[in-house]
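[audit] Reproducing an earlier prediction to check determinism. Same input, same settings, fresh worker. If the tokens differ from the archived copy the diff job will pick it up downstream; this log only records the rerun itself.
[audit] input (199 residues):
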Amino acid sequence: MTIIVGMILFCVGFLLAIIAGFWSLILAFMDHVGWGLACFFLPFAYWVFVVMKWRNKSVRRSFLLGISGWLTILLGGGILVSSGELSIPSQTASITFDSGSEFTPTPSSSVSPSPTVFPDRTSPNDPFREAVNQAMKAAELTQKAQTSEQWIAVSQAWQAAINLMKAVPSDSSNYAVAQEKVQEYQKNLTYAQKNAQTP
């Protein structure tokens, strides 16, 4: 229910702000063409126009209508964000490799596979989040891998990320994304396995 209220407030606020903007622009053109052009092309000119013409009742009304529109947008957006509808998606690691391209890592000091690559399977609260974290670790290892052993560790990391993505339940809101990521991560796994076999 809160999502519907938030959406309605957001849309009503948007409409109020648009109407107020057009109304203010029309008032500026009615006062003088110079004011209208200035308000159209220069955002700060609108504020100067409102201050200079504040005694005009229509200018005050259009300004207050615009402010109420923006406040309603903020209120609706706040409700949507607090309900989780407009939450910012977590950044997912997505590296795809073209099998025809050559991977040339930047030289670095000796890199050994990290033993902390694999997720703790004792508390899989959110397999999607764990899979994303695992994929980010795999991507970091991919950037540094040079030896066969390092590429094996990269392969194992991508396989762990794939397994975690496959563990995302079908009733999860991230299920569709997880299925796409399985395909992407599979390409990365294939690339890493190919490099692990190359001496």
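[audit] rerun output stored. Observation attached for the diff report: The chain has a mean pLDDT of 82.
[audit] end
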